[in-house]
Description:
Helix content: 25-40%
Number of strands: 22
Strand order of the largest sheet: 6-5-4-3-2-1-22
Number of domains: 2
Radius of gyration: 22 Å
Strand content: 15-25%
Number of helices: 14
CATH topology of the largest domain: Metallo-beta-lactamase, Chain A
Distance between the termini: 6 Å
CATH architecture of the largest domain: 4-Layer Sandwich
CATH class of the largest domain: Alpha Beta
Shape: globular
Amino acid sequence: MNITFHGAARNVTGSKHLIRLNSGTAILLDCGMFQGMGEQTEDLNEHFGFNPKGVDYLILSHAHIDHCGLIPRLVAEGFNGPVFCTAATMDLAKILLMDSAKIQEQDTEYSNKHRKRNGLPLLQPLYSEEQAMESLRLFKIVDYNETYEITPQVKLKFTDAGHLIGSAAVNLSILEEGKLTQLTFSGDVGRYGDMLLKTPQPFPQADYIILESTYGDSLHKDVGAIEDALLEVVKQTCLIKKGKLIIPAFSVGRTQELLYALNALELKGILPDLRYYVDSPLSEKATRVLMDHPEVYNKEVTAVLKIDPNPFGFKGLRFIQSTEESKALNDDPTPCVIISSSGMAEAGRVKHHIKNNINGPENTILMVGYCEPNSLGGHLLRGDSEVFIFGEKYQVRAEVQAIKSMSAHGDYEDLLHFISCQDPKIVKKIFLVHGEYDVQQHFRQRILDKGFGDVEIPYQHQKIEI
């Protein structure tokens, strides 16, 4: 058999790994959208590097758009097999894919106004809401720790990856020509000591591991430090400078962590009396999904629930729904906190909030997670004095800060912990994906130091026989 790495290869987005058995059966692990890749982004999302009609099965590790966001396009181009995932992943994917389609249509319409004025060819969204809805009919639920027979030769087991509600490591048992091969795809690995979720679950012994490496050279701070840092930037921006605090945050996961941290500050009686807006209709839906799955919470959140039935709600919090309400926030000079998607500031309402507040030195843009270097968030984190937003240049006069420790991805200690359940002598090879190349090189050495014998860093569209 062979594996071809069609995404998240020496970068952190567009997760897609195609396994092709000697029999010809093709199994795709994730079908994620590329985000924040600059001028390459459009081309990468429009061309898979393989024929969707030739894929028999799709296994989805979790519902983040960089892992599931191109499923509707895959289906539109001819894929018609089942999409295996956990129940919570299916629930989240429904709202995320519909929201993704809506955002694409809105952002394309907005960009086309500028392009039309400048005589440029008009853009088309990657897929429509109708196509997103059509793809959802293919989803099939597989429970955690259930051994599911995809074919007589291929068996699937999901184990909890602790990264997101429903996130899973994909464990495959593949029997070919009398030989059994155990292959694990980590998906995205969560943190041991996550703010909200249980820790990643040990997974069965594997011969080959496809392992994410986003934070392969970083260590995160503890949750207390996150609360302290968040409180400091709220005070500095809104109380002292009388400005607005804009926080780009993914609607699923990161937004709920922010709300939980702010709620914790209120429980301590130290949360500033301000307006706190979550400007993302998707975020409210995702928060409701999380509230519906208390079984995923860690012990700390479970304890909070005994004294506070809503750990994501507090005084001054308001969820924004309509576009009109969102636009009105930019006309209101009152100091406030605006949490809005997307996390890399590449799309959605947060891009408009940044555009309307980036010129004010009293304002702060707070990045709370990883940003691909070519994304708007990446340019802001790098300290660029000028950025392009919707094709127009803006001076960066607002203050840019970051809380880098707020990540649903494990750091290098978490990742090493994740693979510590494996016997290094049995693992034939580890493939590092979902990471920047320089980070992966450092992390590769850390893995080798733990006794694993072969660690490879595949490049985009590389095919490797196993």
